[in-house]
Each structure stands twice: as C-alpha cells, then as structure tokens.
Amino acid sequence: MSELPPPPATRSLGTSGIVVSSIAWGMWRFAENGRTAADAAQLVHAALDAGITFLDTADIYGFDGEGGFGDAEALLGDVLAAEPGLRSRMVLSTKGGIIPPLPYDQSAIYLRKAIDASLTRLKVDSVDLWQIHRPDILIHPQEVARALDDAVASGKVRTLGVSNFTTQQTAALNHFLGHKLVSTQPEISPLRITCFENGELEQAMMLGLTPMAWSPLGGGRLAAPESARDKAVAGALDAVANAQSVSRTVAAYSWLMAHPAGIIPIIGSQNPERIAQGAQALAVRWTRQDWYAVLVAARGERLP
Ligand code: NAP
C-alpha cells in the first residue's frame, strides 16, 4: 500500500514566508510547579536543539499559579534576558484577549494594552505571531481588525492568527484585516476530530492559514487512555508506532501532520526528553489504511 507524503521539516507560516518548524512546542504548563528560570531554559533548549523552533505561549498561561496572569510569558522573558541569543533561534508566538476566567475582550483599547504588556513580560520588541485566544462576540470584527492592523504597522507584531474561532468568525475578521491572518489554532487530536469534518481545515487551506493543533494528545489522555473509545484510538496508533519503533505520542503527532492542511501539532509536554522525542514524528510514515483506521476508531463507527 502506498504511503502518504512525509511531512517537511519546516513550513511557511501561512503566506508570510516566515519559516517555522513543522512541530511546535507550547508553554501552557510552563510556569507550573514553581519552575525556575534555569529549568525553564532547559526546556527551551530541548525544543530548539531538537529543531522545534516554533514556540507558542499566551498571556493567560500560568494565571492559576503563584504569580498569576502573565506568568508563563514572564518566565520565558527571564530565559530570554539571561540568554538573549535564543530569541533569534525561535519563531515566537503568543496570544491574548481573555481576562481570566472571563470575560473575553477584544476592544481596541484592551488589545493595545494586552499586546504591549506581553512584549514587556517577554522582554522582546516584537513577536512573530500574535493570536486572538478566543473570540469576543461583543466587538465588531472591523474594530478588532483595526487594532490588529495597527499592531502590525507598529512593528510590535509580525503576523496575526486566531484560536478557537468558528469558520465564520475567521472569515469575518479576515475580511476586515489589511494584514491577513496566517494561522488558526483549534483543538485537534486523534481524540478530537471535529476539525476534520466541520470545514475548519478546508478554510485554512483556502485562506492559506497554518493550522496549529492544541492539545494534540487530548491533554495527555492519549498517553493513558481510559474509555473504550480512547483505548481503541490508542490501539490504532500503537499498530503504527510499534511497527516503526516510535512511541504512541510520536505517532499521534505524525498522524496530524499527514493531513494536507499542514497541521502543526503543539507539543504540550514540559519534560525535556519528551519534547525532544517529538521530533521523531518527521520520520513516521502513514498508509491511507493506517491513517483511516485511527479516524474510524475516533469516530467509533465505520466510515459510510
Ligand atoms: P498535550 O500534548 O495534549 O498534553 C500534554 C500533557 O500530556 C502534559 O501534561 C504531559 O505531561 C502529558 N503527557 C503524559 N504522557 C506524555 C507523553 N508520553 N508524551 C507527551 N506528553 C505526555 O498538549 P497540551 O499541553 O494540552 O497543549 C499543548 C499546547 O497547546 C499548549 O502548551 C498550548 O501552547 C496550546 N494550547 C492552546 C489552547 C488554546 O485555547 N489555544 C488550549 C490548550 C493548549 P509531561 O509534561 O509530564 O510530559
């Protein structure tokens, strides 16, 4: 049976021409457990040294920890301050627009403040990608677009993306933007397959957006599946993983990467060995049959 094309080591971030690794590393859990700057630096090095140079954070990450809102960005800022040379080795992406736990706010005045605050915490002049974390349905997309276009014009933000947007919300914002969106970040994993059927990935291909998959292991559920359905998905991944001598989690990343939209899984592990191991996903090959077997297990019923 013929194999699907292997994923490239790098991809263009949307149509921006910015080169990103085809696997990203995320910092949702970065500021947990009182992690020191030295330990944090070790994680950043683990990713970069493995060729995972696309880093994803958000202003809200760490809000439920010791320091609160902004903790994960501030920790990365400390790492960058101690080792400024790291900045040029990464494509740095962050998000804003949620005031925890509510509300969402994308008023122009809030966005301006949020972007400035992120840059201050990160101790950088600009970020390569700035994403709206979740849609604020109380603001006209034209107002959001004006604020975001201004952020690009000011040089604080190189490119723009969205996360957790419906296709219509993405289309509306993109319509009003001068600097068009380059990315979208939905939850996608072998346990969360909605995007394969709801048109989000087709829209990404039509608009030239890079889809970034959050929680590619279902927040870790794939590593320790409990329900019958999750176990079936794990079993279908294991068939490929065992045959190619990789872990199930690596097989899960590569399953996402085989999709023609060019999905970039965001590794969520904060363990240096597991982060580095993620790069093995580039070498895993899928046949159509094996790929669909995972999808069928996730659907819980046969394809029509
Ligand atoms: P995930 O990869 O689905 O889950 C990671 C979790 O699984 C970690 O706690 C990790 O623990 C655990 N895990 C257990 N066994 C593992 C193994 N063998 N290999 C790897 N991980 C294992 O990802 P996630 O952390 O939920 O999300 C990934 C990234 O997506 C975040 O960092 C963030 O950048 C982004 N995100 C975005 C949104 C959004 O709304 N846009 C929402 C959630 C997440 P260890 O650390 O001990 O390995």
Output the keywords.
TIM Barrel; 10 strands; 304 residues; 10 helices
Task: Report what the structure shows.
The chain has 304 residues and is of the alpha/beta class. It has one domain (10-299): NADP-dependent oxidoreductase domain (TIM Barrel, Alpha-Beta Barrel), CATH 3.20.20. Helices cover 38% and strands 14% of the residues. The chain has 10 helices and 10 strands. The chain has helices at residues 37-49, 71-82, 108-122, 141-153, 167-176, 200-207, 228-243, 248-257, 272-277, 288-299; strands spanning 10-12, 19-21, 24-26, 54-56, 91-96, 127-132, 157-163, 183-185, 210-213, 264-267. The strands form 2 sheets. An 8-stranded parallel beta barrel has the order 3-4-5-6-7-8-9-10, surrounded by 4 helices. A two-stranded antiparallel sheet has the order 1-2. It is globular, with a radius of gyration of 19 Å. The model has no long low-confidence stretch (mean pLDDT 97). It binds NADP nicotinamide-adenine-dinucleotide phosphate. NADP nicotinamide-adenine-dinucleotide phosphate binds next to strand 10.
Walk me through the topology.
Elements: E1 10-12, E2 19-21, E3 24-26, H1 37-49, E4 54-56, H2 71-82, E5 91-96, H3 108-122, E6 127-132, H4 141-153, E7 157-163, H5 167-176, E8 183-185, H6 200-207, E9 210-213, H7 228-243, H8 248-257, E10 264-267, H9 272-277, H10 288-299
Parallel strand pairs: 3-4, 3-10, 4-5, 5-6, 6-7, 7-8, 8-9, 9-10
Antiparallel strand pairs: 1-2
Helix pairs in contact: 1-2, 2-3, 3-4, 4-5, 7-8, 7-10
The chain binds NADP nicotinamide-adenine-dinucleotide phosphate.
